[in-house]
Predict the 3D structure of the following.
Amino acid sequence: MPRRDEYIPGVPCWIDTSQPDPEAGVEFYSRVFGWTFENVMPPGSGGKYFIARLSGGAVAAVGSIPEGAPANAMWDTYVSVESADETAANVLAAGGSVLKEPFDVMSSGRMAVFADPEGATFCVWQAGEFKGAEIVNDAGSLNFNGLNTRDVAGAKAFYGSVFGWETLSIGGAEMWTLPGYGDHLEQNDPGIRARVAEVGGPVGFEDVVASINPIDRQGVPPHWSVTFATDNADAVAETATELGGTVVVPPFDAPWVRMTVIRDPQGATFIASKFVLENKDLGSRPSAAVGAA
């Protein structure tokens, strides 16, 4: 995949995980995905923020838990916006909550933290010098973001109002789409539509920006999840276990992929997924996987 140097508004553009012990998080993820890290916080800063890279390109970050935030480890999804301040107003108008008002992150950009009407938290990113993940969809990098929700209709109304997202039904599952996103991808990666069609991808898939995962189990709160691409989901599960992580859902075959759900040693959950073309006609993936918190 070509390196990403921009994200149009309405597209997930970055992920990071807040950890009680960020150095331990760095050790875990460096060994699971082969990431290298750099602490980008200025000397003397109270917190730490380690940018993870693959082949020199930024893919994610591991940081300290922000002051006033819950002490539990988690992965956060950032959506690109033109204006974090205008988005905050739109979130409130649509029935969501502003958990952290828009603020500048030095010269890198401007961000805010919100919750949708169900309580699923997400961030927005108004790019400055930093645009977002530079490598995606390659092994060890972000592959997908997903909203896990009990109120699909309510989610459609909220995210449609805030980001202009629409939905696409694929084999009984629903995906978030952003009209025009496929045109943007085609400009930056000519031939992507043809390649999607060649492997049997559905019409309109190039506009997909995230997934909608209905929660049907008790005890799982609405949340955003992150999925990393991998060359070997089984190996990720094995390595994570050796490093003190927990395999929430063992590797299994699902439509288009073989995937597993992992909880890192400090409690942040993520999905590792290998693209398997031969699996494209399999039945729906178990709800335990996409709904894991």
Remarks:
- The helical segments are 22-33, 84-93, 152-163, 181-188, 192-198, 233-242, 287-290.
- The chain is about 20% helix and 40% strand.
- The chain has two domains: 12-127, 142-290.
- Residues 286-293 have pLDDT under 50 and may be disordered.
